[in-house]
Records
---
Amino acid sequence: MPHTFSTTPRADGFFMPAEFGPHRGTWMLWPQRTDTWRLGAKPAQAAFAAVAAAIARFEPVTMGVNHSQYAHARQILPPDVRVVELSNNDAWMRDCGPTFVVNQQGETRGVDWGFNAWGGLYNGLYFPWDLDDAVARKVLEIERLDRYRAPLVLEGGSIHVDGQGTCLTTAECLLSPGRNPALSKDEIEAYLKEYLNVEKVLWIPRGVYQDETSGHVDNLACFLRPGEVALTWTDDRSDPQYERSAEALDYLLTQTDARGRKLSIHKIHQPGPLYLTAEEAAGLDVVEGAYPRRAGDRLAASYINFYFCNGATIVPTFNDPHDAEALATLQRLLPERRVIGIPAREILLGGGNIHCITQQQP
Ligand code: KQY
C-alpha cells in the first residue's frame, strides 16, 4: 500500500532528475472538454494520439482517459499505448500529474502538488478542478509509489530542473496571486528546494506573451543539458515577446547554476506570431465561466514546449516558415537524440503544447 510521507524529498534523500535523463515511461491525459478543444475535441485527440505514438516508439506511454472516452481512446491509440481510466477535468498531465523524484538507490516517489487550474478563483481557467487535483495521487497509486503531498499550489510546467541542483522558473507564474498568495518569494523558494531537492532557483522574470498559465517556464526556456538553456526568441523588436525574451536572456547571462557554471543560452526563434482564426474560435463550445478564446487572439506559440523521451525529442510544429530552422537547430544542439516534429497547432489552441501534455516517469 503506497504511503504518504509528511517529510520532504530533500529530508529523505530524493530529488527530481532532469527530463533529459532516462525514463521508465511517459504519462498523458486524453483531451475531451469542448470549451478547450474545438469540434468536439476530435482534432486535438488526433494530435494527442500522434504525440503518444511518436513517444511510444522510444518508451512506454500510458494515457489516462475519462470513463466516457475509454472505448474511443482505446480504439484510436496504438495498441502499445496503455490506456487507463483516470478521471480528469482537462488534459494537462504536466501540470496535474506527479513530479517524480528518485534517490541514489534507484527508488522512485512522487510529489503531489496542489492544483487549482492555473489560478483558482482568482484567474484560473476552469472550475471545478477537483478531478485534476486527484490525478497525481492516482498515478502514484497505479505505480504503487509513495507520495509527498506538497503544501504548495504548483504545476509541473512552471519548473524545469537540470538534475544537478538547479531549478528554472518564472516570477510571473510562481508569484502570481492565484497560486500561493500567502507565501513570500523566499518561502516559495524554500519549498522548491525541499520538494525538488535543488540548491539554486533561477527566477526568470516573465514567461511567453499571452500565456494563459501566467507565464509557465516550459513555454519559454528549458535545460538542454546542465549548463545549457534553450530560450524562445524573436528578432522583431516590435513584438511584445521581444522584451520578455530579451529580459530572460539578460537575466540568465548574469546567473550561474548550482555548480557555479555560467549558462550557455541558445535562442530558438518563435513561430508566427500565430493567432486564433474565426473558424477555430467558432468550433469551441461556449460555456459560462470558461476561459474566453476569441478570433484574433494571439497564441502563446513556442518551439521550447518540446518533450525529451528516451533517445528522442518530440517538438511541436505549426506549418510555419520557422519550423524547419527550429528543428534543425535543436537537432544540431542535441546530436545524441532524434529530433522529431509533430504538428501541434491543435494542442496550442488549448493553451499549451507537447511538454504540457506529457509527464516523464524516471
Ligand atoms: O504550460 C503548460 N504546462 C500547460 C498549459 C495549460 C493550458 C491550459 N488551458
Note: The CA atoms of residues 89 and 174 lie 22 Å apart.
---
Amino acid sequence: MAKYYINAAQKEGRIHKEIYGHFSEHLGRCIYEGLYVGEDSDIPNVNGMRKDVVEALKEIRVPVLRWPGGCFADEYHWKDGIGPKENRKRMINTHWGGVVEDNSFGTHEFMELCSQIGCETYVNGNLGSGTVQEMSEWIEYMTFNGVSPMSELRAKNGHPEPWKVDFFGVGNENWGCGGNMTPEFYANEYRRYQTFVRQYGLDMMAAASEDKGFETDNRIRKIACGANIADTEWTEGVLKTLFRHCEERFHGNADGLSLHYYVHPEGWDIKGSATDFDDKAWYKTLAKANYMDELVSMHGAIMDQYDPEKKLGMIVDEWGTWFTVEPGTNPGFLYQQNTMRDALVACVTLNIFNKHCDRVKMACLAQMVNVLQSVILTEGAQMLKTPTWHVFRLFREHQDAQLVNSCIETKRIGEEAEFMVPNLSESASIDAEGRLQITIGNLSVSEDTPVETEIAGYDAKKVTAWILTGDMHDKNTFDDPDHVKAEKFEGAVLKDGKLCFTIPACSVLNLTVE
Ligand code: AHR
C-alpha cells in the first residue's frame, strides 16, 4: 500500500501549457509525409496538411510547435522556402539521410500548419551558418506590419498580414551541430544576433518597461541555446556572458534557456531496440528518464544564481527516447516504434516538468511524427496514435492548471544498482474548472500497487478515471492501430474522505476529482 498526500490548498504555480509542446524538423518523414503531403496528394489534406494528423494533434491540444530544427535549423536559409514552389531551391539534406529537400514546406506552410492545429509558433533561427541580416530579415518578413522590403515580399508571396511568432530560438545546439562554439563565444554571438530580432509592432519602450520575462505574451520570446544533458559548464558560461554589463536590462533580451536530453538505454553508440527489450532495459530506460529531475534541478540551481526571480524559462525543447532505428529503415531518418515503455517515459518526464513548473516553462517532445518518440506514426495514407500520444491525451488537463503540493510513498525498483527508479511517479493540479487532476504512473513491470490518498483542502465528491495499461512491449501497428488505448477505469473510489485505487503494473492513470 502506498500512502499518497495531496494538499489542494497549497498552490505551487502555473503549469505552463507550453510544457506539452512538440518539435518538428526537416528530418526523415516528420514534415514530408508525416505532416505535409502537398495540395495535390491523394491523402486527404487541407492546403497540403494531412487532415487525419491535424485532427489527432488537436485532440491532445498541442500548445506550441518548434520548427525547422534541430541541427537542420543552423543550416536552413529561410529564403529558399518562400515564393512559387517550382522556383524553390532543391538541395541535399546533408544532416539527415542525404535526401533531396525541395523546400516545398517553408515559412508560409509552417504558419498554416500551426493555424490549423491552433498552436503557438516557435521558430528556430540560424545562428551557426546564417548572418545577422538573414535572421533579422526573417523576423521582418514574418512579423512586420508596415512598408518594408520584407513585408512587401511576404505580401507578394500571398500573405499581406504579418504572423505572430510566439517564440524564437537564436541557434540550436551551438555547442555541437550548430557551430561547435564555446559557451562564451556563443553567448556573445547570441547578444549580437538577438539585438536584431526586433519586436515589430510594439512600442519598444513600453514593452521593455512591462517586461515580465517568459510570462509576457505580446513580445517574441527569445530562447538562447542551453546545455546538452549535464553540461553545467555551458550553462554557467552562457549565463555569465549573457548577464555581463546588463544585469538590470537583461530580461527582455532572453526569455528562455534551452536544455536537451535524450534517453538512450544502452548509451549513445548502441542505443538499443525500441521494441525488443528485457526487464533490465525497461528499468534502465525509466531510470534514465527519471534523471531529468536531477538535470532540471542542477541547471536550475545555476539559473537561480543569475535569475532568482525565475523570469528566464528553462526550455527543454528536445526530450524523449532515442532508440536504434527500425530494421530496414534509413538510419538518417530516426524512425522508431513506440511501446508502453515510451508511455511510461512520457509519464515520468511530464510529471517531472509539472513539479518544476516554476522554472520549466516550455518543453518540446522530439519529434512530432515518424521521428524518435513520436505521438503519431504514418505509412502512406495510414496513421496511428502511439502510446505516447495517449499519455499526452491523459495529461492534457494539466495545461495551464495550478500545480498543487503532493507526495507519494515509493520504493526503488530495478535490476541493477546503478539504474534503480521509484516505482511510482505522480503530479496533481487544479484545472480551470476547479477540478483536481492527478496523473500517476506505475513503473513496475509486474507489481500492482494499492494507493490510499488523503486529499486536504478539497471537498472531493466524485472521481472519474482513465487508464493506459498493458504489457511492457505493447504497441500500436498499422494492422492493429488501437491495440494500446486509454480506457475508462472503474477501480477508483472515494471512501471516508480518501481516494483509493490499485494502479496495475505498467500503467498510466489520470484521475479527475470533483
Ligand atoms: O532530434 C534530432 C536531433 O537531435 C536534433 O536535430 C538535434 O538538435 C539533436 O541533436
Note: The CA atoms of residues 43 and 381 lie 6 Å apart.
